[in-house]
Write a structure and sequence with these properties.
This protein is mainly beta. Helices cover 8% and strands 40% of the residues. The chain has a seven-stranded antiparallel β-sheet with strand order 25-26-27-28-29-30-31, with no helix packed on it. A four-stranded antiparallel β-sheet has the order 1-3-6-5, with no helix packed on it. Strands 2-8-7-4 form a four-stranded mixed β-sheet, with no helix packed on it.
Length: 470
Amino acid sequence: MDINDNAPDIKLSSLLDNVSEGARKGTVIAFITVQDKDEGKNGKVRCSISKNSPFVLESTQGKYYSLVLGEELDREENEMYNVSIIATDEGSPPLSSTAVVTVRVSDVNDNPPRFPEPLINVYVKENSPAGGLIALVSAPDIDVGENAHVTYSLLDSSDMPLASAVNINSMTGEIYSMQSFNFEEVKHFQFKVQATDSGAPPLSSNVTVNVFILDENDNSPVILPPYSEAGSVNTENVPYSAEGGYFVAKIRAVDADSGYNALLSYHITEPKGTNLFRIGSSSGEIRTKRRMSDHDLKTHPLVVTVCDHGEPSLSATVTVEVVVVEGLDMGQPSLRQVPMKEEGFSDLNLYLLIAIVSVSVIFLLSLIGLMAAKCCGSEGGLSRCSGPVVTTHPDGSWSYSKATQQYDVCFSSDTLKSDVVVFPSPFPPADAELISINGGDTFTRTQTLPSTGKTVKRRVSAPLTGQRQK
């Protein structure tokens, strides 16, 4: 009788050392042969592999098995697998053997280089020397080998010629300036950097680089006309009777820089400690502090300094000679203070005036037409709603009108009882009306209906005005 004293024997053949991460499902990794020297039930063997593995064990026939790929692989998640193959017989007690298969996953170029951010902002001071490092870009590739070897290049930009502005080290991603930038000429420009790996086929990605030029205080304030004329003597007259706060002149200046570098302040630097004139530090207006006195000089040369707030601060100066004049009209401003008003009538004003007049005329005509239409409508309504009208004629007859109907009235010679025949105009005989006027202040109206020939008599008690007796 056989005793279960032999464990199963596992043999591996045709083992793949490396499996590509792009391998398809069902790819055979290895062939496995399992044998047991015992007989009967002790020689029957069951084979299995460890759980949580992308591989499956398929039985071909009897003692032969195949280790195949059950799902897709990703080297970036797991680049090596140790698969345990367990063979167990059905003896009592059962005996088992274990063999470990190591499967390595080889890389394919399935990941492009990736920049940490899609947009990079770079700040460069103006007047910085050319050749300075302004930025460093990096796009790691999680593949390995040649698939992870990344090179960098610049993509053309429509803002400015890149070859004259910046350059990039293709291996390290370092970006260098190729010129010294001037904030007053270029404040911002943009370009793209492309990172490409060395895989087959190569994969790439881009990043946008914004370069902002920072302003430096490299421009002095500039005095504006009329005090900026080179070699000219800037003279302003002040009446002797001027009160404190009298406007003398206004100094204006500009600075081509920006921000605090262009924020200007005005100061009177000569004569120092003057107690007769002052200047607005932000407005540049020169005014008197007090009234003139006999002890004051007739001529006062003032040196005005305009300073910006940059580091270091830059300035410009202008000299204004103030002359005290007796009998000067205080109401007459200086030509330097008040700009001349432009004479004449411009074409734009003419077109504007024509447009206003045209619109006004059209509006008035529309209003008049609307009023006329309303008046005509109201008159027609009154005529349609008006009551009957009796008109006396020279021959003794009356005309009786109601709305659009008109009647001719004839009286008889009987003074006590007269018959009045009313004929519509035009009248058919059937529509004739006979009106009998009694002796009193009443009259009887008789109408013959055209269809039946019946006579309808109506008695109306009403004063009869305009009756004529024959």
